[in-house]
Specification:
Elements: H1 2-15, E1 51-52, E2 57-58, H2 77-96, H3 105-112, H4 120-143, H5 145-165, H6 169-196, H7 206-224, H8 230-244, E3 253-256, H9 264-286, H10 294-321, H11 331-334, H12 337-366, H13 372-377, H14 380-396, H15 403-421, H16 432-459, H17 465-500, H18 506-510, H19 521-554, H20 564-583, E4 591-595
Antiparallel strand pairs: 1-2, 3-4
Length: 597
């Protein structure tokens, strides 16, 4: 009855003639939100509420009919292009460094005489990257997007240079970890600002572009290796970003948060759980498979306990404070079946992807005798396929929502590639089929990158869009980190077996380059066999993980799914209702909608 009365009242309001002779005004409540916070939509200008930006107090509108000005005029084309270039370079560099040392690991290991611990060089970056992505997004709600992004750039550039000056493996690992903190900020802030400042007519292509950058940057890392230095590129793109940052009139008004609302405890528990769990496998692998000893059990148990404490804390936050606290892991997202399934699928795809980026270049150098540059160039087929897969993911979902099919196809393509790679031999001659099979892995990962980016945007509310993208990045890198650790564990077991059999010495396996002259042809055959068996077993494990990913991807499907564009409109309406409810509560602790500088 109330609904019928409301409709009649609305219809009567449309029929009433305006008092001043102007066009009739739409009597419906505000359904507009910040165009910047959504992936696409059509924002409408509304009047702003009064607010005290110093105290954070909000003056609520007199009624829910009072409308909020949450729109912003489009940026001039030149300024927009320069800004997107700066953001794109930041995103590219952040993802590039997840794999840029892949072809250099063998050289770095020879330089520091430490092949057993060399995988900590990539792991240090990926672990801090995955741990701080959501935290950086939350901090940007407090200090502003520009300050957070420039801070991330400074951290990234400074410690990129420091990595080049490292005098020991321990220093290099430490600098890579700090570099990863900056990289996480470059990623998460870019994923927020790009849709916020993109004109409505261009928002449809954002997910596809981001997917291509994410996918190609990872594969380009080993190819570029030491060809590029971060200093010049990072410095130029940071300057572009700073100079092209728009004036306040072009910035969308967003809800500011306070420092006390940031979930630092949750972020700490997230870091602890990720680092300790990966550390247990990586460290045990480098020790030759000490699975029953304290060096493995201790960190693993502590990491799992931290993970349990993390979720317990998130449940407490949600029940005690609701959305007044910026949780490290928004549980509302995890209750979304499609989003959670997409996260698990993304993590499964990240496992063989990162494993391939690090295992194949080392194998090309040790088994096939290729240089670091040649080893990187041999990943070009995978790069090309990744770009094609990213583009196809956007095409498949242009008119209809086929995200479930996209994610299933991604895992199946990667399974085919991993399974075929298990046929590689330990012969010193390079087998062309090994390069050809990488195409399937690249194609599948490209589909996954675009599909997961779109899924995060459509299955999250506008308020949690940044957190959703951060979580997708985190699980992708977590899966990759576990893949790297798994390869280390497999190599450790295979190496230990070869040493115990008396075929080679531990020193010959650990310092292949420096002791090449003392290795006989028979021993070289054993070494090639160790690295080939490591590859085969890693690909086999990758197939198992991806099979689980196929099962998870089936739950992305929904009978009631709607086209991508319509899904965004639904998110607009939901956010409009939420903001109207918030505007009616003067006790809200958030700083009101203002342009976030």
């Amino acid at each position: 009855m109330d609904g019928d009365a409301e409709k009649k009242s609305e219809a009567a309001a449309w029929d009433r003639p305006p008092a001043n002779g102007s066009e009739p005004q739409d009597p419906r409540p505000d359904t507009n939100i910040t165009s910047a916070e959504a992936g696409m939509g059509e924002p409408k200008p509304k009047p702003k509420p009064d607010a005290d930006t110093q105290t954070g107090e909000t003056t609520a509108p007199e009624s829910l009919g009072d409308e909020l000005d949450l729109s912003s005029p489009p940026l001039p084309k030149l300024r927009y292009s320069l800004l997107m270039t700066g953001l794109g370079c930041g995103l590219f560099l952040a993802m590039l460094d997840t794999s840029i040392v892949a072809t250099s690991l063998h050289t770095i290991a020879a330089e520091f005489q430490d092949l057993e611990r060399i995988n900590w060089v990539p792991l240090a970056y990926t672990l801090t990257f995955l741990s701080c992505a959501v935290l950086f997004a939350r901090i940007s709600d407090v200090v502003g997007r520009r300050a957070a992004f420039l801070s991330a750039y400074i951290i990234f550039i400074v410690f990129s240079l420091a990595c080049g000056w490292a005098k020991s493996l321990d220093q290099l690992v430490a600098f890579r970890a700090l570099q990863g903190i900056g990289g996480s900020g470059l990623y998460s802030i870019t994923m927020i600002v790009m849709p916020e400042l993109t004109p409505d007519e261009k928002k449809k292509i954002i997910a596809g572009i981001v997917g291509i950058v994410l996918a190609t940057a990872g594969v380009l890392g080993p190819v570029l290796g030491g060809v590029l230095t971060h200093g010049p590129i990072g410095g130029v793109s940071a300057i572009l970003f700073y100079l092209s940052w728009p004036e306040k009139k072009y910035l969308p008004p967003l809800e500011r948060r306070l420092w006390r609302e940031v979930d630092f405890l949750g972020s700490f528990l997230l870091v602890a759980s990720a680092v300790l769990i990966v550390f247990s496998f990586q460290n045990s692998g480098s020790e030759g498979g000490t699975w029953g000893e304290a060096v493995f059990i201790g960190p693993l148990v502590t990491g799992v306990a931290s993970l349990v404490a993390l979720f317990a804390w998130q449940f407490y936050l949600e029940r005690r404070w609701g959305d007044k606290m910026a949780a490290a892991i928004p549980l509302a997202l995890l209750r979304n079946k499609a989003f959670t399934a997409g996260m698990l699928t993304t993590m499964a795809a990240g496992f063989p992807y990162m494993l391939s980026l690090y295992v194949f270049p080392i194998r090309f150098q040790i088994v096939n005798g290729k240089s670091a540059l040649d080893a990187g160039l041999m990943l070009l087929p995978m790069l090309a396929a990744t770009a094609v897969g990213s583009a196809l993911g956007g095409v498949f979902n242009d008119k209809k929502n086929r995200l479930a099919e996209t994610m299933v196809a991604a895992c199946i393509m990667m399974i085919i590639g991993c399974a075929l790679e298990t046929t590689a031999s330990s012969d010193p001659g390079l087998e062309p089929k090994v390069l050809g099979f990488l195409v399937f892995i690249g194609l599948g990962f490209g589909l996954s990158a675009t599909g997961s980016t779109m899924l995060a945007a459509t299955e999250s509310t506008i308020q949690e869009h940044a957190s959703a993208q951060g979580l997708v990045a985190q699980v992708r890198i977590l899966g990759g980190s576990i893949g790297i650790a798994a390869s280390s564990a497999i190599l450790g077991v295979k190496s230990k077996a070869a040493v115990e059999a008396g075929a080679v010495s531990a020193s010959q396996l650990s310092h292949v380059s420096s002791e090449a002259a003392s290795v006989s042809p028979e021993q070289w055959a054993v070494i090639r066999g160790v690295y080939t068996d490591t590859l085969k077993e890693g690909m086999t494990v990758g197939c198992i993980v991806l099979a689980a990913g196929v099962v998870a991807s089936l739950f992305v499907y929904s009978r009631s799914r709607v086209p991508i564009e319509e899904k965004f409109r639904q998110r607009y309406r939901e956010e409009a209702e939420r903001r109207q409810r918030t505007a009616a509560k003067p006790e809200s602790p958030h700083v009101p909608a203002k342009a976030v500088v």
